[in-house]
Amino acid sequence: MRLKKLEITGFKSFCEKSGINFPPGISAIVGPNGCGKSNIVDALRWAMGEQSVKQLRGKSMEDIIFAGTNGKPPLNMAEVSVTMANDNGTSPAELRDFTEIMLTRRLYRSGESAYFINKQPCRLKDIHNIFLGSGMGAKSYAVIQQGNIGAITDAGPEERRFFIEEAAGITRYKNRKKETLAKLDSTNQNLLRLMDIIKEVE
Ligand code: ATP
């Protein structure tokens, strides 16, 4: 999958709808201090499902909604859409037929939030599933923020292993294994309970 386009409305300093196209290759965002470079990266991570307010440099999730400036009142909703070219077969089977995948995340000041894949409502889990093993995603190395290089070189063995596993495309299968083991465990618990009941009845 390749990042193609980012559309931002009401997110941090982006009051009006703004769009950024990413051509193939490496894209770098440059500009004067405080112009909103990191806010673009935050928007990208947020649309990819980032849950950590700290990673988004805020105190609460509401901080990502445009808070108003001298001439403009605060907004009640933030919406970010990220469009990816679906061209290398790393997307989940149910999305293989789409040439583009558009993810949208919306948050209202009331706290209500929603996720969409190609404009269809979905769960956060579905968003995470798209990125598992793709090398992209809120926690991937595809988006390099200020300080990220240092974080990778200083990472401990466990963290470094995560980066390698993600690049090798096995995170998706590791997660599925974890889910399956949890289901097996709960089935075993049910079986034990059932055996107890059978013994009581006999
Ligand atoms: P630097 O190069 O110094 O790191 P930058 O270009 O990365 O700067 P950002 O951190 O992306 O800049 O943007 C900072 C600006 O975003 C500040 O002016 C801040 O007031 C504004 N900002 C952050 N959150 C909001 C919000 N919720 N509403 C309105 N403006 C916001």
Automatic annotation (TrEMBL):
Belongs to the SMC family. The gene is smc. Transmembrane segments: none annotated. It comes from Desulfonema limicola. Contains large globular domains required for ATP hydrolysis at each terminus and a third globular domain forming a flexible hinge near the middle of the molecule. These domains are separated by coiled-coil structures. This is Chromosome partition protein Smc. Required for chromosome condensation and partitioning. It is found in: Cytoplasm. Residues 170-202 form a coiled coil. Homodimer. ATP binds at P32, N33, G34, C35, G36, K37, S38, N39.
